[in-house]
Design a protein that fits this description.
Number of helices of chain A: 7
Largest sheet of chain A: 4 strands, antiparallel
CATH superfamily of the largest domain in chain A: Jelly Rolls
CATH topology of the largest domain in chain A: Jelly Rolls
Number of strands of chain A: 15
Number of domains of chain A: 2
Shape of chain A: globular
Oligomer: homodimer
Structural class of chain A: alpha+beta
Helix content of chain A: 25-40%
Radius of gyration of chain A: 18 Å
DNA sequence: CGAAGGCTTGATTCAGATCAATTCTTGTGG
DNA sequence: CCACAAGAATTGATCTGAATCAAGCCTTCG
């Protein structure tokens, strides 16, 4: 059941929610690699591995993760359908953390695309730009992750992460209205949020009671998206690139 | 009093602890830009700003930071002497968070170096490699930051961050034996560690009592570096690149 | 149908936050 | 060189958000 979108719509290639033109998609279509499936909760790459074979996620969710010696687990970031596992524009790239599947996963090898983006960016400008943009987004989400777990309350963290998921899935066409499929266990959320699974559960209960969200069978509905975003200070990465329209948000003191 | 090292030793350029050859340093030496000083706790760049003018830190410490609407502050990463503020290899780079000084700061404009690294990497291979390496280190430290604040105890967090500072300063020649100058307030540490300033203070007291560290006048001495690293799971980024020597550390379960 | 994994809930504990003084430093101006 | 003011560091007392422990209850799915 690959309910989570294909990353190519009618011949248009999409990476991390960024569409290539039909023309460039056509050029690249025959460069796509083999498809693999992976079961949930398996290690895909280990710290220190070479990242020369990035894989595009066609369905399912994955993450980067680090373990402490006593078994504590920290999820560093999540990868959703359309994201690329192990994308690096470095000529000699190394995994800075482990990569693991969180659900059943279907991936496609895109090592060739990586090579093209690196060696002939001029021939594939959109591909190269999409790769760079994906890296920027990845860093943006890392920074969001730090702010969430460093300075936000449990209910803010959960709200913020749900908004991030919604935003990212929307870009890939995987949200329906205000709803999306969330295939993660509460434990997988907890390990990303720096909380215990029990407390994630209670926090969901709180958000439901306050009518911020509805959750039924793995489907999350954000009922008050504006209010939710306001409450937890959520911002889209796109906001950063439209500096001309919005006047500069004069930030808090010093 | 710029007690914190110059980033150039006898004509050798050093970026983030990575030395260029004498030859390439000589080629680049005349491309260095103007020097500026900045007072402590001022905003250097805001979210969304163009990053076309990176600045090398010659002395002092800085950080990237994000504020919540009620004034809570999260420090995302720290920049030490020899680091570059706003380094990006993207053609059209944007600040993903604010940049601020934490101490008095002396910086040097290195926009020209950025341009050379981008446009003529073949002529300046070491410069280009150093820039890439710095970006990798930066991401490595972001991941460490996430693990610290997401899943470690206060005393582990503090120990881990001190080890990181020691490691980074050592590479630039700014550590003396087991000691280094730590010019940050406990509040600046707290905002990076996701703790309150009071608790940082108490945690220092604990680490002192256990004879892990000594602190006097802004000088930190790591008394039991091995034990400390073991206790908090600290690892050097270099470990990742020497996969051949060390057999693969089979990590915790799945 | 049964087993296993995930979810939910209650009871209890605890790490770290918050509040409130007091000292200690450090930089400044006279 | 000294006095002081402002900012840091330190300490105590108290509170609280989230962890932990421990059942029970749902869903899946073979």
């Amino acid at each position: 059941m690959d309910r989570y979108a294909p990353a190519a719509f009618g011949g248009i290639l999409t990476f991390g929610g960024i569409n290539l033109s039909r023309a460039e998609s056509a050029l690249l279509a025959r460069q796509l690699g083999a498809i693999q499936t992976h079961r949930p909760n398996v290690r895909l790459l280990s710290e220190g591995d070479m990242l020369d074979r990035p894989r595009l996620i066609r369905s399912g969710w994955a993450c980067r993760v680090r373990f402490l010696s006593d078994g504590r687990r920290q999820i560093l970031n999540y990868y959703l359908p359309g994201d690329i596992l192990g994308l690096s524009l470095d000529p000699d790239p190394v995994a800075l953390a482990g990569y693991a599947s969180l659900t059943r996963l279907m991936t496609m090898e895109v090592g060739t695309l990586r090579t093209l983006a690196l060696d002939r960016p001029d021939e594939y400008p959109e591909l190269a730009a999409a790769c760079r943009r994906m890296k920027v987004h990845e860093e943006f989400y890392l920074l969001a992750q730090i702010t969430r777990i460093g300075r936000q309350k449990a209910y803010e963290r959960v709200a913020h992460l749900l908004l991030e998921f919604y935003s990212r899935l929307s870009r890939t066409g995987l949200a329906e209205g205000a709803s999306f499929q969330l295939p993660l266990t509460q434990e997988a959320l907890a390990d990303g949020l720096g909380l215990s699974a029990v407390h994630v559960n209670r926090t969901f209960k709180l958000l439901k009671r306050k009518n911020y969200v509805r959750v039924e069978r793995g489907t999350v509905t954000l009922l008050e998206r504006e209010a939710l975003a306001e409450m937890c200070g959520f911002r889209e990465p796109e906001d950063l690139f439209q500096v001309d329209t919005v006047p500069h948000k004069t930030a808090v003191s010093f």
